[in-house]
Structure formats: structure tokens, C-alpha cells
Amino acid sequence: MAESNKVAFVTGGTKGIGYGIAQVLIQQGIKVAITSRSQASADEAAARLNQIQDGYALGLESDVRSLESQRQAVQQVLDQWGRLDYFIANAGIGHFAPIQEMTDEQWHETIDINLTGVFHSAKAALPALKDSQGYFITIASLAGTNFFAGGAAYNASKFGLVGFSQAMMMDVRNDGIKVTTIMPGSVATHFNDHEPSEKDAWKIQPEDIGQIVADLIKLPARTLPSKIEVRPSMPPK
């Protein structure tokens, strides 16, 4: 395991894309901290991940809506493993409704988690990533360039996240920190109360995004794919 001295942090890592990323990174020999707003959920997911490689997963309670919460979580990772090399800002939520029906609470929760939460993550992680010459990866969406009815809050958060990620990339690259945003299409997850099933076999799988992350961090230091759009290769006709 050539990457055994490396450490990653995945927000929203207890299920879906976040869990798939953590799974692949641990298989690559990378230690991974995953977060949830519930310590019990984080511990349960970390226990499953530790079955891949014992001691390689750490479950943390953290809320991306709080900068202090993110700073505390990053400090816990540094206290545990002494370094941070890769930060994957994955935590997200979706509220979908026509603007006439969307509540103020739904709007703010979407923006606070999907966009402001990534700002908080960056502020918390950048000092450690500068020390390690590390990588900050955001999980956006094809909804960050493609708008649709009922998607006002989600589109706004993901359009904003794509712009934030690209600007951040230019802000920090001379500090030796890489930034990439990954923009998946249909992924087989529990997102928006969906229950994955065999009917989702055509969709991108969470571990597919994990493999993209694993491939990105292996690229030569001089190369940076700053924005990656990912679609299912053979969707239903």
C-alpha cells in the first residue's frame, strides 16, 4: 500500500458518494475520516469501512454549516494521524420545488450545506493542505451547469459551487494545493429519498466517483483537471 502514510477527509461520508469515495481510498491504503451530523451514524459507517483495513477509518460528528465545527473536525484528524492530504467536500442536500412553493428554510438549508458548507470546509482545511501540498476536491453536479424547473435552490447551490471551486483553484494553486470539482450526473444513491435498486444498474455507482478521486490524486503534480463532468455511459433510451 504505497499511499499508507496519506490521510483523507470526506464530509457526508456515511453513505452514497461519500461512502463510496472513502471505500475506494481505504482500498488504496489511505486513512480516511468521514463525517456526519450524527456521531452514531459516523461510527457505524466507520466500523464497516474498518472491515476493509482495520484502523483506517475514523468517524466524526461535524456540521458543515458551522465553521467552528469543521475546524474542530480537522483538528481531530490532525490529532489522530498528524496530517491531512486530501479533503473531499461531499456533504450535500437537495430540496426541489417550484420557487412559489419553496420555503425560506429549504432555500437556506440548501445554500448553507451545499455552498457555504464548502467555504467552511476550505477555511478549516487549507492550512493543513498547504503543509502537505494536498488536494481539495468538491462534489458538485451536472446541475451546476444545467438548470431545470423545480431546481432553483439546488441549481443555485451547485452553480455557485462550481464557480467557487474554480476560483479557489486559482487562489491556492501557488500554495501547492490542487482543487478539482467533480460534477456527476445520475448516481445510484439515497439522495432525495431515492432507494437504490437493480433498476439503477445503468447509473454511476458511488464507488465510480471514488475511483475518479483515486485517479486524480495519482496524477503528476504538474497536471490539474480542474473540472470533471461525469455522465452514465449508457443511460436508458
Widest sheet, order of strands: 3-2-1-4-5-6-7
- Taking the alpha carbons of the first and last residues, their distance comes to 41 Å
* Residue share in β-strands: 5-15%
Uncertain runs: none
Count of separate structural domains: 1
Protein name: NAD(P)-dependent dehydrogenase (Short-subunit alcohol dehydrogenase family)
Organism: Rhabdobacter roseus
Pfam family, one: adh_short
InterPro entries: KR_dom, NAD(P)-bd_dom_sf, Sc_DH/Rdtase_CS, SDR, SDR_fam
Question: Short summary of the structure?
Answer:
With 237 residues, the chain is α/β, with parallel strands linked by helices. It has six helices and seven strands; from the N terminus they run E-H-E-H-E-H-E-H-E-H-E-H-E.
Description:
This protein has helices spanning 16-27, 39-49, 67-81, 104-132, 152-172, 206-216; strands at residues 7-10, 31-36, 57-61, 86-89, 135-139, 178-184, 227-230. By secondary structure, the chain is an alpha/beta fold. α1 packs across α6 (206-216) and α4 runs parallel beside α5. The relative contact order is 0.14. The mean pLDDT is 94.
List the keywords.
237 residues; alpha/beta; 7-stranded parallel sheet; 6 helices; 42% helix; globular
What is the secondary structure topology, with strand pairs?
Layout: E1 7-10, H1 16-27, E2 31-36, H2 39-49, E3 57-61, H3 67-81, E4 86-89, H4 104-132, E5 135-139, H5 152-172, E6 178-184, H6 206-216, E7 227-230
Parallel strand pairs: 1-2, 1-4, 2-3, 4-5, 5-6, 6-7
Helix pairs in contact: 1-6, 3-4, 4-5
